[in-house]
Amino acid sequence: MRIITYAIIMMSESRHGNDYNEFPFSDHEMKAVYKAIFSRRDVRSHFMSDKAIPNDALLRILNAAHHAPSVGFSQPWNFILIRNNSIKEQVKKSFLKEYKKSVSMLENDKQRQDKYISLKLEGIMESSINICVTYDPTRFGPFVLGRTSIEETGVYSVCCAIQNLWLAARVEGIGVGWVSILAKEDLHQILGIPKHIRPIAYLCLGYVEKFSSKPDLEVLGWISRLGLSEVICLEQWGITNSDNWQDFCTVLNRIEKS
Amino acid sequence: MRIITYAIIMMSESRHGNDYNEFPFSDHEMKAVYKAIFSRRDVRSHFMSDKAIPNDALLRILNAAHHAPSVGFSQPWNFILIRNNSIKEQVKKSFLKEYKKSVSMLENDKQRQDKYISLKLEGIMESSINICVTYDPTRFGPFVLGRTSIEETGVYSVCCAIQNLWLAARVEGIGVGWVSILAKEDLHQILGIPKHIRPIAYLCLGYVEKFSSKPDLEVLGWISRLGLSEVICLEQWGITNSDNWQDFCTVLNRIEKS
Asked: Which among A59, A173, A181 is the nearest to B146, CB-wise?
């Protein structure tokens, strides 16, 4: 009951607006948000399949997603919640078919192929809920404010919603795994998604025994994390140093060396 | 100095991994994350142009973006930081050109056109830093794990990074406005972005006098927020009620009515 009340408070705060938006974040609150960002993981194993997600936690997570930014406030997302095993099984079949294709793409690099085959890449059946997140380009259209020059911004909004969902799930102790080795046509067919609606993500949600301290692919040496300086340019593409950014570069170097 | 130390702690925690990932979030921490999600705004006005963003805050925000999920851990993003006024002015010109086109699209709906014209849609010059976020489809490629069936997942990763950036900025008290009324070709030309790299977002960052309690477009009556039940389907597209989801629907209805 306490939790349901909490859910209602969270939702009504966001819907009716309240003063807290005016207030700054305390150091403690700031740290909590960074903690969520840094400890969020893409989860494929350690799902506790016998521990169900309570409805109020699920609704808080979905409400967080629904409060993502969207171009022209178009809110072009839908969330198809899937608990039915026979539907999950059909999605799993699509995964297996696409996975086979992906393995064959590494035919000329046996070492990498072996490593690839050793990875667990989905938790469709073990996770307690699957969520297919879709994009509706027709919502509040055809004139969508801010989408007049770059059509794809509608899809970008849906991805922001997915990231909100992911972070909210993390603080609820719920792991999320994004299964992308699927055929879109299969999702259309299995989930009865109309042609004009685009499936964007297929997510597996469930309580997990643990969250790894680093991404699995980093731990397993598949790819290393890039240094922050490797993804920053100054004023224009390819520029990594400039007189006007001396102080910035000094702080960046200090952080990277520490 | 204290702040720089904090930045270093935040970054080294995330890079070297530590125990906190194993721990659950306290109620207080959970609330802080939901507060960030619900109070984040797309900001176009109220920028305090004379208050610069400190380098360490900017780096914490960029590091948060860099810790987004990415397909196959490909980290396909770059962040072009822009403070130079002459570059900003060129981007503003692109906005004005595209804006004119968008106004003409409402030629047949004068009432909506008037409302549209009354809106402030960008803060390019007033914000202290602009950031162009780009997508590199070639990074760690051509075989990117998880991108073999759905090519667009690479772009989706970049959008997740943008949402991390947005939430981190919010807790730092920094407003973010996404300017999407721009021509991609102009961004390529102005920022020297190579052909194979795709500009995804052009963001304006700066301290703001206030964060509105609701999205501007909602307050101004451009579009209303959809109810949560309107964006949820059960098991398949279009299904909003089912015997297996009775309890869920009861909680959802209770929340929506409250």
From this structure: A181
Which among A81, A231, A170 is positioned nearest to B158, based on CA atoms?
A231
| Nearest CA-CA distance, residue A136 and chain B, Å | 10
User: What gap in Å lies between CA A104 and CA A102, rounded to an integer?
Assistant: 5
B17, with CB counted inside 10 A (0-12, 13-18, 19+), is middle
CB-based contacts of A214-217 (< 8 A; 24+ apart in sequence):
A214/B17, A215/A41, A215/A42, A215/B73, A216/A41, A216/A42, A216/A44, A216/A119, A217/A119, A217/B72, A217/B73, A217/B145
Tokens of B157: 């990763």
Residue-wise pLDDT tens digits, B127-186: 999 999 999 999 999 999 999 999 999 999 999 999 999 999 999 999 999 999 999 999
Is B227 touching A (CB cutoff 8 A)?
no
Q: Does A102 touch chain B (CB under 8 A)?
A: yes
Compute the distance between CA of residue A138 and CA of residue A151 in angstroms, rounded to an integer. 12
A41: closest CA among B153, B68, B166, B28?
Answer: B68
Residues of A in contact with B74 (CB under 8 A): 223
DSSP letter at A226 equals P
Peptide bond into B142 cis (omega under 30): yes
Which residues in chain B are closer than 8 Å to A148, comparing Cβ atoms? 98, 101-102, 105, 181
d(CA A23, CA B233): 35
The model carries a pTM of 0.93
- Yes or no: say if B65 and B165 are a contact pair by the CB < 8 Å rule: yes
Query: Which residues partner with B174 through β-bridges?
Result: B207
- Judge: A255–B159 Cβ closer than 8 Å, yes or no: no
Nearest Cα residue in chain A from B33: A33
The first and second tokens of residue B11, run together, are: 């970054």
What pLDDT, in 10s, does the model give residues A186-245?
999 999 999 999 999 999 999 999 999 999 999 999 999 999 999 999 999 999 999 999
Looking at this predicted complex, what is its ipTM? 0.93
Report the candidate in A178, A176, A140, A133 with the shortest Cα–Cα distance to residue A156: A133
Q: In Å, how far is A180's CA from the nearest CA of chain B?
A: 6
DSSP 8-state secondary structure symbol assigned to residue A26: P
CB A84 within 8 A of CB B244: yes
Search chain B and give the residue with CA nearest A74: B223
E strands, B33-119, where?
Answer: 77-82
User: Are A74 and A157 contacting, i.e. CB atoms less than 8 angstroms apart?
Assistant: yes
